[in-house]
Write a structure and sequence with these properties.
A hairpin with a 2-residue loop joins strand 1 and strand 2 (20-31). Helix 3 packs parallel to helix 6. Helix content is 33%, strand content 26%. The strands form two sheets. A six-stranded mixed beta sheet has the order 6-7-8-3-9-10, sandwiched between helices. The chain has a four-stranded antiparallel beta sheet with strand order 2-1-4-5, with no helix packed on it. The chain is built from ten helices and ten strands. By secondary structure, it is of the alpha/beta class.
Length: 254
């Protein structure tokens, strides 16, 4: 059996918003080309944790992080960390589709402009490759100059994922990517995630336990800023080790 090395390692991570202790002593390993789900009640620290992995929390005033986090063996909490390079390696998809008010093509090439090693001659190849990666090329190849805002919500979210793929990441963070979508579109995005995991490591925040059970290989259950349990999804959902995990999964709270 092939072992999948850890792409992200978090060790004894604490995060504070001012005096508020939002994450408490978090340690976990995110495995290569696997889907890891972060579950737990609202306000438990899921989105805060996922944003630690590409330093998005830095944008909030008064944030302080202690502990150690490595991405591909690089210490991302080091002052020497190049955040542009980190966010290229660790891309992010947000709750609501957020295409730029540009053409479909413009959305996919926007981020490429800050990476001068890629010539504009390569852009069309990247556009095609990225749209193929989210199974949109056949639908959109003749509409690349249309406004991205004219797409359906599901297509917009796929485009936002394609925009991340255009940057050639190794990790894709998804913060409740289906919360604005209907059940059919949600299942399609989950099917897309299964395709993407062949080439990418995925971390998804979800409030939908059925989604975590269907789509993920590993699950971390957070409660009040602590990680209560972390392990293989099938094991956690069938035989949780912690009573609080069992209570949450059976709907006794949350």
């Amino acid at each position: 059996m092939t072992t999948h090395p850890a792409v992200i390692e978090a060790e004894q991570v604490h995060l504070f918003y001012g005096t508020f202790h939002a994450l408490q002593n978090i340690s976990l390993s995110i495995r290569e080309r696997k889907i890891t789900a972060l579950i737990g009640p609202s306000g438990c620290g899921k989105s805060t944790l996922v944003r630690v992995f590409n330093r998005m929390n830095d944008l909030i005033e008064g944030v302080r992080i202690t502990g150690r986090i490595t991405v591909l063996d690089r210490d991302i909490l080091s002052r020497k960390t190049d955040l542009i390079s980190l966010r290229k390696t660790v891309g992010m998809v947000f709750q609501r589709p957020n295409p730029f008010p540009l053409s479909i093509r413009g959305n996919l090439t926007f981020g490429l402009q800050i990476h001068p090693e890629l010539s504009k001659n390569d852009y069309s190849e990247v556009v095609e490759e990225s749209l193929r990666g989210v199974l949109l090329w056949d639908d959109l190849k003749d509409r690349l100059d249309y406004s991205a805002l004219r797409l359906s919500l599901e297509q917009q979210q796929r485009l936002c994922i394609a925009r991340v793929l255009a940057m050639k990441p190794q990790v894709i963070l998804m913060d409740e990517p289906c919360s604005a979508l209907d059940p059919i579109a949600t299942l399609r995005i989950e099917e897309l995630m299964q395709e993407l995991r062949k080439n990418y490591t995925i971390v998804i925040v979800t409030h939908n336990m059925q989604q975590a059970a269907r789509a993920s290989d590993y699950t971390a259950f957070l409660y009040l800023g602590e990680m209560i349990e972390f392990g293989e999804t099938k094991t956690m959902f069938s035989a949780p080790k912690e009573k609080r995990t069992e209570d949450y999964l059976t709907g006794r709270f949350g």
